[in-house]
Recover the amino acids of this structure.
């Protein structure tokens, strides 16, 4: 009975999924996505928030089909293998707040863990500080986990609860088809589009969606999670998820070399700044928020696709968080951290510590 | 005499932490663990095996799985 029926959950399964993401992310960049941002869950959710006008940062507005694909691909996998389990009720408001601050931290660094790995694999040295911050934040999170921190039990619920985020994503895609991008127009119907900047850079819609669906499917099956990779290594000396992460970095490095996208250095890296302390600090906040919420931004999308209503609330928290980040001048830009970015990181850390210290059973 | 760990409704890493705590406390014997997702089932199985325990049985039911792990 020790054998798993699910190939994706084996060692070679997780390595295969990491390797696949490592290859297709730089390819998506080649096909049009922004620099070292073939896939970035935080950035792309932020772009979606821009597309629907939750913030009005003109350079980051685009309804990213990759995110839509992640959720729907996971939903398809969950239904195909009878793993769709609608559940909710494990402190949703806390997950929302963690999502908000996870996004703010990620936007101070300029990327989610996936993008940190992709930036590293393309030679962006600033990513080292971000990744060290991420590990630091997760490491702090493991102390809370060991000390009895948890957000309580979920309850089984109606299937429709699990369907709401996938339906929302399907709705976003229908909006995108209804109001497609019009050349040189910043608005199409009710959707905002960027005319310049990262939001104006994107691979063909069908490619983005197809790759998103495939990754969503495979990642749901394999439980791929960048936060879990470090957490399990620190907490249990268990390298299963970490092998997936290593495969992602290795294959992204090779793919970037082949595509001529490897440019080692610290300055003038695409969509990146060189304020090391805040590259580190932003990701400490993000890493701690991911650890307290039980998954990296990608994993939260896959969980939402398999019926986890609390993960869906985290996703909505991240989307709203990107609104705060851009409306309040918290997000960084290639020039450096935003006007109030440092204050937001400190407030976020205080809030996460408050959550970590007060939500313990034992 | 087996011990029951009820990790139903808890998300990872809680089920694994609870299982490993019980494994360390008992050293050997039989533990029954209740989980509600496939991820938890796989993670608990993997953790038990890495601690030298055998996954003797996995029962699926409407609300999840019941795993039985053993060490002689």
């Amino acid at each position: 009975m020790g054998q798993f029926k699910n190939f994706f959950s084996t060692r070679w399964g997780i390595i295969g999924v990491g390797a696949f993401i490592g290859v297709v992310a730089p390819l998506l960049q080649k096909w049009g996505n922004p620099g070292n941002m073939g896939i970035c869950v935080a950035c792309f959710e932020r772009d979606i928030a821009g597309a629907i006008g939750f913030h009005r940062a003109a350079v980051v507005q685009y309804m990213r089909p990759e995110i839509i694909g992640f959720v729907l691909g996971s939903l398809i996998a969950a239904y195909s293998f009878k793993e769709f389990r609608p559940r909710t009720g494990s402190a949703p408001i806390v997950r929302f707040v963690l999502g908000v601050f996870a996004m703010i931290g990620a936007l101070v660094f300029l990327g989610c863990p996936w993008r940190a790995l992709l930036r590293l694999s393309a030679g962006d040295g600033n990513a080292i500080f971000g990744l060290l911050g991420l590990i630091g934040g997760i490491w702090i999170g493991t102390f809370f986990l060991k000390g009895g921190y948890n957000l309580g039990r979920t309850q089984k619920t109606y299937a429709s609860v699990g369907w709401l985020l996938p339906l929302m994503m399907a709705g976003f895609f229908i909006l995108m088809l209804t109001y497609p991008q019009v050349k040189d127009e910043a608005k199409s119907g009710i959707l905002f589009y960027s005319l310049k900047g990262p939001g104006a850079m994107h691979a063909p819609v069908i490619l983005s969606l197809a790759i998103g669906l495939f990754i969503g499917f495979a990642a749901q099956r394999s439980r791929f999670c960048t936060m879990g990779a470090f957490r399990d290594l620190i907490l249990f000396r268990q390298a299963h998820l970490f092998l997936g992460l290593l495969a992602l970095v290795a294959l992204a490095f090779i793919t970037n070399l082949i595509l001529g996208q490897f440019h080692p250095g610290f300055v003038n890296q695409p969509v990146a700044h060189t304020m090391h302390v805040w590259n580190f600090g932003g990701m400490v906040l993000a890493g701690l928020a991911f650890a307290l919420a039980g998954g990296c931004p990608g994993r939260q999308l896959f969980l939402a696709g398999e019926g986890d209503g609390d993960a869906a609330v985290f996703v909505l928290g991240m989307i709203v968080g990107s609104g705060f980040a851009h409306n309040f001048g918290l997000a960084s830009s290639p020039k450096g951290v935003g006007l109030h970015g440092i204050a937001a990181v400190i407030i976020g850390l205080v809030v996460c510590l408050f959550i970590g210290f007060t939500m313990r059973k034992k | 005499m087996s011990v029951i760990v009820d990790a139903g409704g808890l998300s990872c890493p809680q089920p694994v932490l609870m299982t490993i705590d019980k494994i360390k406390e008992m050293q050997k014997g039989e533990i029954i663990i209740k989980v509600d997702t496939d991820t938890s089932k796989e993670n608990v199985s993997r953790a038990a095996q890495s601690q030298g325990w055998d996954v003797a049985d996995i029962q699926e039911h409407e609300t999840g799985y019941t795993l039985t792990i053993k060490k002689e």
